[in-house]
Amino acid sequence: MEGGKLIIFSAPSGSGKTTIVRHLLKQEDLNLAFSVSATSRPARGKEKQGEHYYFISVSEFKKHIKNDDFLEWEEVYRDNFYGTLKTEVERLWAQGKNVIFDIDVVGGLRIKKKFPNETLAVFVKPPSVDELKIRLKKRSTESEDKINMRIAKASVELATAPQFDEVIKNYDLDTALAEAHALVKKFISIPTQKPKN
Length: 197
Hints:
The chain has 197 residues and is of the alpha/beta class. It contains seven helices and nine strands; from the N terminus they run βαβββαββαβαβααβα. The chain is globular and about 45 Å long.
């Protein structure tokens, strides 16, 4: 696999990474395309197949794992899989695009490890765990139990921030958007160093 750059945005749920990624996708100077993840969970609300996720069954997901079709994958909760298909990144690279990911911290770090020279890994930090809880409750898409599971996971995820190339503190959205744009712009302007054999 080889092509453009890989831009990863990872963060606990509710940190604002999706808002930042959507904003960056609209910036034509960055030449970005969104990597749609595969998941074994059912669609929520207005989510569309192939736009928000590739929704596949648990058995289909496991078949892809067996065939080594994923760049990275994870079982986030029992039988609740998420992953990035290699074909998705290859498809976007073939269009001459830089690929941007809105992905959890484990997956983000796995991609960074596989493609250290081509990847910019950015961690989006929320103002606080309390603020995260408020944001997740405002969404009204999940039960109290699910929210508590996400908050517990967030504490673990926050500890991984130092492993990322950059950390953006999302205390003020406009500032975070400008910072994200500047980081990505700078990264894609640097020629990729091919590893010496």
